[in-house]
Design brief:
Layout (H helix, E strand, L loop, with lengths): L1 H22 L8 H28 L16 H33 L3 H32 L3 H18 L11 H9 L2 E2 L8 E4 L2 E5 H25 L5 H13 L1 H8 L9 H17 L8 H28 L1
Parallel strand pairs: 1-3
Antiparallel strand pairs: 2-3
Length: about 325
C-alpha cells in the first residue's frame, strides 16, 4: 500500500512539473481556448485514473479493497463509483471557489499574465493543506461515529453562508487574514514584474502578488472545510477521498480561465451548490437511520448541478431577448 501512495504522489509531482516547468514557463495571459483544452485534458486524465481505480480494486493490487483477513470490502465497481461521485462533488463545489478567486483578482487588479502563477502556487498549497485536513478527517471518521453528525451540521451551515453571500458588497479588506498581513508583514504595493518578494531600500518586503496568494490560499482552506466532509459520506476509503479531491483540484486553474469571463452568466449556480451541500449534510445526519446509496447521491448531485446551469442559461436567454 505504501508503494501505491508513493507512486501516486510521484505522478502528481510530474503533472505539476509539466504544468509550470514546461507548458507555462513564461508569464502570459491564458486564452480561453488554451484553458478549455487544458480543462479537457485534466478531466480526461481524471476519468482515466477512475478506470485505473476500477482495475486496482477489482484485482486488489497492493491488497487494496481487502480487510486484514483478506476478505473483499470494496469491489472495483463500488470504488469507481465512489471516486467519480467524490470527484463530481469536489469539482462542483470548486465553482464557488472560482467565483471568490475572481473577486479577489478583480479587487487587487491582478494583471492577467500573473494570474496563472498565483493559481499554480495556490493549488500546490491547497493540495498540501487538503492532504492534512483529509488525514485528520479520516482519523476522526474511523474513531468517532458522532463526527458524521458534526460534518452534516457544518455542511448545512456552509450552504446557508453560500446562499447569504453578497458578491456586490463583499470586501476582501474586511478579512481577518488580510488585516493581520497588512499589520505585521512588510508589504510593498505593486507586482514587481510578477515577484512575490522584493527589496525596498535594501530591506525585505512582500509584494501585492504575495498578498493575493495568501488570500487565495486561506480562501481555499475555508472552502475545504465545506467540501471535504462531503466526500466522507460518499466513501471512508482514504485513498479514494484523497485522490478524487486532488484530481478535482488539479483542473481548477484551467477551469478558472474558462469561466472567469462569464461568471456572471451562472446566476443560479450558487443556489444549486447550496442544495448539494444541504443534501449531503442531511445524508450525513441520517446515515445511521436512513442510508442513501452512492448511486442515488450521484444522481441527486448531477440533478442539482444541471438544474442550476440550465436555469442560468434560460435566464440569460430571456435577458438577451428583452
Amino acid at each position: 500500500m505504501l508503494w501505491l501512495w508513493i507512486s501516486f504522489f510521484i505522478l502528481i509531482c510530474i503533472f505539476l512539473a509539466l504544468d509550470l516547468g514546461v507548458f507555462h514557463k513564461k508569464d502570459q495571459q491564458i486564452t480561453v481556448r488554451e484553458a478549455a483544452i487544458w480543462t479537457l485534458v485534466w478531466v480526461s486524465v481524471s476519468l482515466l485514473f477512475n478506470v485505473f481505480v476500477w482495475f486496482l480494486y477489482s484485482n486488489h493490487w497492493f491488497g487494496i479493497g481487502l480487510d486484514a483477513d483478506g476478505l473483499v470490502v470494496r469491489t472495483g465497481d463500488r470504488a469507481a463509483l465512489e471516486f467519480f461521485t467524490g470527484y463530481l462533488i469536489e469539482k462542483s463545489l470548486s465553482f464557488d471557489n472560482i467565483f471568490v478567486i475572481a473577486l479577489v483578482f478583480s479587487y487587487f487588479k491582478v494583471p492577467a499574465k500573473f494570474q496563472h502563477r498565483i493559481l499554480f502556487w495556490g493549488i500546490l498549497g491547497a493540495l498540501v493543506f487538503r492532504g492534512v485536513i483529509i488525514s485528520v478527517g479520516a482519523y476522526l471518521v474511523s474513531e468517532f461515529s458522532w463526527v458524521f453528525y458534526f460534518f452534516g451540521v457544518v455542511l448545512i451551515y456552509g450552504a446557508v453562508k453560500m446562499l447569504a453571500f453578497d458578491e456586490e458588497n463583499a470586501d476582501p479588506e474586511n478579512g481577518l487574514v488580510l488585516r493581520l498581513a497588512r499589520r505585521f508583514l512588510p508589504i510593498k504595493p505593486g507586482f514587481d514584474d510578477g515577484r512575490f518578494t522584493t527589496r525596498v531600500n535594501g530591506e525585505f518586503a512582500f509584494t501585492t502578488l504575495a498578498l493575493v496568494l495568501l488570500v487565495v490560499e486561506t480562501t481555499d482552506v475555508v472552502f475545504a472545510f465545506d467540501s471535504i466532509p462531503a466526500i466522507f459520506i460518499i466513501t471512508n476509503d482514504p485513498f479514494l477521498v484523497l485522490t478524487s479531491n486532488i484530481f478535482a483540484i488539479l483542473g481548477l486553474r484551467s477551469l478558472y480561465f474558462v469561466l472567469a469571463g462569464m461568471i456572471d452568466k451562472f446566476h443560479y449556480l450558487n443556489w444549486a451548490l447550496a442544495m448539494i451541500l444541504i443534501f449531503v449534510g442531511i445524508k450525513m445526519l441520517l446515515h445511521g437511520f436512513l442510508p442513501i446509496s452512492t448511486g442515488v447521491s450521484l444522481g441527486v448531485i448531477a440533478f442539482f448541478l444541471l438544474l442550476g446551469i440550465g436555469a442560468s442559461m434560460r435566464r440569460n436567454s430571456k435577458l438577451e431577448k428583452s
